[in-house]
Amino acid sequence: MPPFQAACPSNQIAFDFMSESDVTQPRAGAVAAAAFAPAGPARGFVPVVAGVSALGILILAIASSGAGTPLLLTILSTLAMFGVFFLFGLMAGHIRVGERLEGADFARAIPEGLDRGVLVTRRDGTPLYTNKMLEEFTGRTASGEAASLDAAFGSDGAAREALFRLTRAAERGDRHREDLRLPAAGGGVTRTLAIETAPFDMGMRRETGPLSLWTVADVTDDRLREAAARQALHDALGHYESAPVGLIAAGRDGTIRHMNATLTRWLGYQTGARTQRVLRLADVLSADAVELLEGAWREGAPDLVTLEIDATREDGRLLPVQLVARSGRDGSRLLALMNRELEAGIAHTGGAGEERFDRFFQSAPFGIASVSADGRIASANSAFARLMLDASSGLNKPAAEVLCRTADKLTRSSVEDSLKQVLAGRASPQPIEITVGGEREQVRRVFLSPLATFGNSREAAMLYVIDATEQKALEAQYAQSSKMEAVGKLAGGIAHDFNNVLTAIIGFSDLLLQTHRTSDPAFKDIKNIQSSAYRAAGMVRQLLSFSRRQTLQAESLQLDEVLAENASMLRTSVGEKIALKIQPSRDLWYVKVDKTEFDRVILNLSVNAGDAMPGGGSLTVRTANVTERESQKLGLDGMPIGEYVMVEVSDTGSGMPPDVIAKIFEPFFTTKDVGKGTGLGLSTVYGIVKQSGGFIYVTSEVGKGTAFRVYLPRYIPDIDDTVVAVKEKKKDRPADLTGTGRVLLVEDEDVVRSFAVRALKRQGYEVLEASTGVEALEIMSENEGRIDIVVSDVVMPEMDGPTLFKELRRRNPTIKVIFVSGYPNEAFRETLGTEDFAFLPKPFSLPQLAAKVKEELAK
Question: Most buried residue among 232, 265, 378, 495 by CB atoms closer than 10 A?
């Protein structure tokens, strides 16, 4: 239906025959277009009524004459046909019966009825339309037209600038708004007009060009209300800042959003510093107090929580306060602090003893709780709540229940007996140790003391709780260290003698194997004897590694190169079901370690990881540099801040629970089935890492895998170190073990000496033998200048190896020396230090001894 029609007098009927296009909605701006069209009187209705009346009279006349029956029927049929079409058009909406309203008048009434001025202009400012309200704002010119905005308000400088900005926005076709403050004549209330311009489209762009719609509204009352609200807020904030109590508004995370000026002054913060620095509740209150508040709200405590505590000033001094806090529904924290120092007499006379006691009670660094005669917790400080992991402090709960939530039957019985004893007025003879936490990993020591009741006092006993977790951990570490030291001493004490026996077994097995063919029935037996001896030698070596008493041949290495060399061996060790990933780091730093021992570390960790993934999985070995700053962030226990090279061996296996992690480095501890593990693998790794000056840590989660991280100190090699390392990597063991030369063999064990002499003679060497260091010096004197190399044991009676070495070098500074030993002691390592000598660990085989001698003689 068209939006605007010609207006009709009241109580008249209009018929409007609509075309199909008239049913669609009008274009934007049609209302305004109609507002500018002239309104015309009603036409066409009277002739239609007259015609219908005449037609009716004619029909009645024909009907009364009786002669026009055929004509009458024809007329009636025609009228019936028109009636059918009329009904069809009425139902279809093409014909309307109703009161007509002139669209132009209706559209004109809309802007005229607004409470704001309306102005439509072209982009160049030419006005096309103004309503009456605009004329009230601007007034009229001498010609009777509405005055322009510039003429009405341009006398004021600020208004002129605002109108300039509005005009420029209208020219660009932008929307813009300005508030004009117009001083009233005679000192009245300043009038504020809001003027806005926006682009406007009437749908007649070809005729009018782009238009702008201007509106002018009086917002004086709105601005007065806003100013009053701002003043009220300013006054409220002024009262908030100068309130005689300290006020804090904090977020759910403990960040202080605002602290009033009173508390800022009490705590000694400067206003500027307060706004620049992000403060938390833990900066103003003690950690125990914050935890107590948070815990109380978590436990569903009343909205208001009151505490007597000490706040912390900016300079670290304490301020006695009474704290009243509540938690908002949105998680915000609102706190009010009363300064106890300002209360009458408390700072000068020492009065208000109850308040002072409450403050001391709450600020104590250990847990304190009072127990009523019926065995319930009557009061408790924040430290008690923290230590007992009870956010509500256990108030009004049975003391035995609070102390024994995770205790076993024996501990519970002991606690209950001690509580009965102190509630009966008898002192408890000794403190009680209890465990708390989900894994019972924290230890608390509880002291119980009876109180003499008097007056209305309801406290019958006091509980004092201290954290003994660290002390128990130190005790466990000391016990573990003592156990490791004992095992180390045991291993070191027997290693030398045991390795001598194994050297003889392995050596003579080599000699026997050389005299038997592989088809000989005895060959397999001899081979089994030799294999068992090697296995026993490996166990001794593991014990020495665990006790950190083996001799390390440290060299400058890049661990990425070592891992690359061992990649094929690691893949073979872990099996085909496990995907091995080696992730080297770029520009990895050097470390100084024994390459052979480090190989054993990686191999043991990889084999253990493979055992944890029987169904397959992924094993990742990666390296990384750890800077000094990164090591500080790690915060690992026992590891000093410095530069390290990290080697991580991680798997996707079954993982380990905490109780297993605590024991994995202990000797002979294993989770494998009987006969499938010695329990020395990880203890060996631990010993090698520690003896290399490094650190090892493990993280594990059941069902998700385990990661071992080894941190070795960074070593900055000089040119000589690098050259030696490269040379040693390129050295190959000679395939031909025969040689010539005179060898002095010094060994106090006859069986070992016998094997070694035979082994060297079989390779073509001339061998002189001595059983002690003194005898060796005598032989050296007799063969002055004719001995090429000395092979000597370290631990011998009368004169040990280091002493013999010094004497040999004093007589002949260029003499070559090879030390053989299963356990060189601390004195040996410290005495010889950087001296140039070779070392062959026991037990050794015939080829190893021959190869070492030939290698040293070739230098």
Answer: 495
